[in-house]
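## retry 2 of 3
previous attempt timed out at serialization; input unchanged, resubmitting
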Amino acid sequence: MDWRLDQVIFQREAGRVVVQVDLFDTLGRLRREVFHPATSDPALALERVAQALAQRGVRGPGRVRQRKGSVLLPSPELQRSFLQHLES
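## retry succeeded, writing output
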């Protein structure tokens, strides 16, 4: 089944980056996945998640945002990088 990326939300937890990915299938059903890359660097964590999703055929575009408390902040630079890795 083809999955389309909706959004990526990352945050720091206990010195690591946790990445939540929301995907939709062709019927519009939501699937949420959580990744725990072994790194404290958000750029590297997002790169690893993008590569894993690309191997499964997930398509973009999508938003990348950072969770700080209860607020979601846009992250344009990390979004560009994430989408480049997803498409490669």
